Amino acid sequence: MWRDARLVAAKDLRIELRSRIALWQVLPVAVLSLFLYAFALGPGRAALAAAAPGLFWLAVLFSTVLAVQRSFAIESGEGTRDALRLSGIDPAGVFLGKVAAVALELAVLQVVVWAGMTVLFGVHVETPWLAVVASVLATVGLASAGVLYGALSAGLRVRETLLPLLVLPVLAPVLLAASRAWAGALQHGSVAAGTGWLRVLGPFAAAYLVVGILLYGPLLETG
Amino acid sequence: MSRPAGAGWSPRVLAIVGAGALVSVAATVWLGLWVTPPDRTQGNLVRLVYLHPPVAWVSLYLAFGLAALSSLLYLWKRTRSLFWDRLAAASVEVGVVFTALTLATGTLWGRPTWGVWWTWDARLTSTALLLVLFLGYLALRRVPADPEVRAKRCAVAALVAFVDVPIVHFSVVWWQTLHQGATVLNANLSPTIHGSMAWTLLLGFVAMTLLFVWMVALRYRIEVLSDRVGEEALEVTLAERWAEDDSPPPADAPSVPVPSGRPT
User: Which member of A204, B180, B184, B259 has the lowest number of beta carbons within 10 Å of its beta carbon?
Assistant: First the structure.
């Protein structure tokens, strides 16, 4: 399973490195959203800094939808889905591999968006370990739930409109918990309150990893 | 024509359950609006208690619980049958109606008692998210696919959504207790309520449960029959196409383009 996961993750990331779609389309949209937030809330630094944790995770949330769509778009063309199924690779391995690839892309995206936010909104992290732990847990949760729904809607004609409807309400607790945890990690935040939210992010990530490992097999058969 | 097999309860049973549901709903309305006394603090607003908690019970526990259980039984190979798939679909569809009613009666109650239509209360927020989850399931169901494929896909979707429910609930409970303090007025189910009120509330639960059972059974039957009509229509169309191959249409007939390949 782990070997298969590594193979699938390497395949997805290699395609991304060569096509650069994620780099030149998904990432710019996430950075652009920082400007849109500033236009929506006004140029006052105080308002932007207060809203920064929520805005950061909103940007990541919507980028997750794009990244997941991209992750399954690269499999739609050449019959990759059937090939993967025929190759005898463990479905759980496929799931974990795709989750790893999407999570890695999201991690890179978060670094860039956070750098943009530091420059544009003037916020800084007071408790780095909390921000990093929250980020890692949230990213695994977003990627695993996202990949599950991506597989569910892959190959459907209505996938672009269906995926957000399916996945966004499921990801809502991650947005909530990650934003609160980050609010605790930024300046003036309460670290204790922020740490408590890890107890939402951890179980969410664990639950969707387990569900994905169990249900990805039946899901691949429906392609 | 005899009753088609596998279409669930016969029309007679459906009629009996339906009549029971309607009678108990009517009795709840009568008891709730005329017989029971108004509440000391809430006045006539308290009469919503006979409707709102029973509707919420049906949508949040019965409908979603039944949908999750049926989806699980469908995915489990030993019990796999389209029966569970259709039951899950019927249950979700009725559940959407009841969830929307829960939100509607809740906001109607909230406006006069809390002074606002909406508060970011944990139950309200998680019910609203649940409604969207339900709607997503129905949207997925409307995507045309082979029945087996659709059933499997929808069963996975239902279970994946089901995992989310406790997490959503826990996180919004925490969110609102951290940020707003408890605002929920929940004196409804206190054990000191008037005798006739307790009985009416109990009847309300029975009525809504019966209504749910009736609507799900009806919806299940419609699902089976519409599948059957679809299959028959396909067979008729196929037969027509085969007939076209055998005898070309007369020269004076209006030319209709005949699609090549199998009609699907």
Answer: B259
